[in-house]
Every structure is written in C-alpha cells, then in structure tokens.
Amino acid sequence: MILHRRNINHGSQEEIGYDLGLVVPKVRTEKKPAAGYGTRIGTKKYSINSYFRKNNIDLKEKYFPAEITTDVKKFIIENLKNGNDIIVCFNNKKLYGAGDYGHISLIQSINNENIILIDPEKNMPKKRKVKLSKLVDAMKYHGKKNRGGFWIIY
C-alpha cells in the first residue's frame, strides 16, 4: 500500500512477502517459526529497511515503541503532515476482541480521538475506526519485543 501510494514500482505481494520472510502454511517450505506464521521483519535479514535497500527504494523505516511516545496524538498528526506513512503493530485481540496475535495496519487519518486504520486482513473491512487510547493499549500489550508500536516510513 505504501509503495503504491508513493508511485514506486515494486514486485508482487508474493515477492514482497518473500523478501520480508513471510511464512504461511503450505507455501514457504520452512518449519513454522517460534513467533508463528507471518513476516519476520523483526530480524535484520527480513527487515523493511533491508527490503528497501535490496530493491533500491529510497525510503527508510524507523521503529518507535508506544511507551516512549509522550504525545501520541501529536506524533501521529506531525508524521501524517510530513507525508510519512505510519504502520502500527498491535495485539489483534486487545484491539478487536479476537485473534491473540500480532497484527499491523496503516494509519489513514486521525480526528480527535478517532483513528482510521487501513487493514489488510482478509474478510475484514479495509477501513476500521478505532479509539486512539485503545490502539495505544493494544500496541503496548504487544510489546517492544514484538515491535508493538509505530513503524514510520519516510
């Protein structure tokens, strides 16, 4: 979504997923990772920055844990105003009530305490409205170890 929005030529979803270490049942022939199925972007080899470098894309990703962001609303507004993309990583069950796993979405907008997320999850609405405080709680719950928080693409 980010590459498309910025008019950057890129590979297919499958190629991007492969470069990010995506492991799903019956597709990538590897043992199920300890963290479960999904990408392994927390490792240097499969990081977003590694993907950008490998594909000569002039973008960078920087991680900000929710705990160290003092004024979250201001942080989001400033990043959107600067044209940055904001990926949020959170515990799905804590935010949506089902599925005890990590999940990511892209912040589209903020209006007072309401956040509009663009959600890639299959069979779910692509735009989802959530309360800022609930999103922050879900990011903190997911934790720094699991990269819960903000991933700024600039």
Tell me about this structure.
With 154 residues, the chain is α+β, with helices and mostly antiparallel strands. The protein has 2 domains: 1-59, no CATH class; 60-154, Cathepsin B, Chain A, CATH 3.90.70. The protein is 29% helix and 24% strand. The chain is built from 6 helices and 6 strands. It has helices at 2-5, 13-19, 48-54, 72-81, 92-96, 132-142, and strands at 61-65, 85-91, 102-111, 114-118, 127-131, 149-153. It has a 6-stranded antiparallel beta sheet with strand order 1-6-2-3-4-5. It is globular. It starts with a helix and ends with a strand. The relative contact order is 0.18. The model has no long low-confidence stretch (mean pLDDT 88).
Overview features:
single chain, 154 residues, alpha+beta, Cathepsin B, Chain A, six-stranded antiparallel sheet, 6 strands, globular
List the helices and strands and how they pair.
Elements lengths: L1 H4 L7 H7 L28 H7 L6 E5 L6 H10 L3 E7 H5 L5 E10 L2 E5 L8 E5 H11 L6 E5 L1
Antiparallel strand pairs: 1-6, 2-3, 2-6, 3-4, 4-5
Poorly predicted runs: none
The run of helices and strands is HHHEHEHEEEHE
Number of helices: 6
Structurally, the number of domains stands at 2
CATH class of the largest domain: Alpha Beta
**Number of E-state strands:** 6
User: Taking strands numbered 1, 2, ... along the chain, how are they ordered across the largest sheet?
Assistant: 1-6-2-3-4-5
* Gap from first CA to last CA: 14 Å
Q: In percent, how much strand structure appears in the residues?
A: 15-25%
What Rg, in angstroms, do the CA atoms define? 15 Å
Shape: globular
